Target: Zinc uptake regulator, Fur family
Amino acid sequence: MTSTEPGLRPTKQRLAVAAAMSSFEDFRSAQDIHELLAHRGDPVGLATVYRTLQRMVDAGEVDLLRTEDGEAIYRRCSDTHHHHLVCRDCGATVEVEGPAVERWTRAIAGEHGYGDVSHTLEIFGTCPSCR
Amino acid sequence: MTSTEPGLRPTKQRLAVAAAMSSFEDFRSAQDIHELLAHRGDPVGLATVYRTLQRMVDAGEVDLLRTEDGEAIYRRCSDTHHHHLVCRDCGATVEVEGPAVERWTRAIAGEHGYGDVSHTLEIFGTCPSCR
DNA sequence: ACAGAGTTGACAACCGTTCTCAACTAGCCT
DNA sequence: AGGCTAGTTGAGAACGGTTGTCAACTCTGT
Ligand SMILES: [Zn+2]
Ligand SMILES: [Zn+2]
Ligand SMILES: [Zn+2]
Ligand SMILES: [Zn+2]
Model:
């Protein structure tokens, strides 16, 4: 837990979740992480897992994206703005950057008079080892 | 209902949903559409609304995207590949195209050995009349 | 040790979506 | 027209991910 706000305690549970998030590279659901912690011998209540992940997402320590059916999946990510190239089969994820895309989205929005612009961009494919 | 498959009937309900989808420009949830139909005097069961929307999404007649909290929202769209510039406040939506982005995503995926590439890209902002 | 704010977790509640299945149609054959 | 059949509908139940509840617990400072 990097983010230290006033009155935010580094409890066993929060540290366990943070550790778990550092132990894999792909995107996983809250329930997966909850199970992983249980198997690992650091059981953490499901509600706490959700709460902690939320906090980490807000702090920018973790990226959240949605599967095709709307389920939230989480991954520890670098703190700079980036996007993901995700394997549709095994979940293997690569962080990618595209300055041109950043420029383009801002330009398009400007052309239509939209301000305060943000965007989401994810690329899906089949990774080399899943072909 | 444009898509005519073998044994697919243009029922009152399906036509009503199709008509409803042509009556607005922004993205709406299935429940919104269900209510809209009721108010309009063409009540259609919620399950049927979901089923019909699914079918239209599969047929490419309707675009589906997810709100921040994972809810599915639907909009009648042109059948060519495109993305959306959506007003965060009122939902006003503009379809946009970006050949450069299309090229870029394919290139990035290729560089990492990913094949069978697809992507999602949505731009959010505040439209002129909501500023 | 004590107080008080922060945290936890079992469980219930929520809510969007999907399933079930008996009743109902639209379309087709005679 | 009458009947046959595959397709469709909708009320309600079920499902599954997520959030809320709240009494018990745990830090941390005094
Ligand atoms: Zn893979
Ligand atoms: Zn970006
Ligand atoms: Zn607007
Ligand atoms: Zn595209």
About this structure: The domain at 1-77 of chain A is CATH 1.10.10.10 (Arc Repressor Mutant, subunit A). The CA atoms of residues 21 and 88 of chain A lie 20 Å apart. The pocket of zinc ion (ligand 4) is lined by residues B 81, 83, 101-102, 119, 121 (CB under 6 Å). The interface with chain B takes residues 66, 70-72, 85, 87-88, 94, 96, 98, 100-101, 104-105, 108-109, 112-128, 131 of chain A (CB under 8 Å).
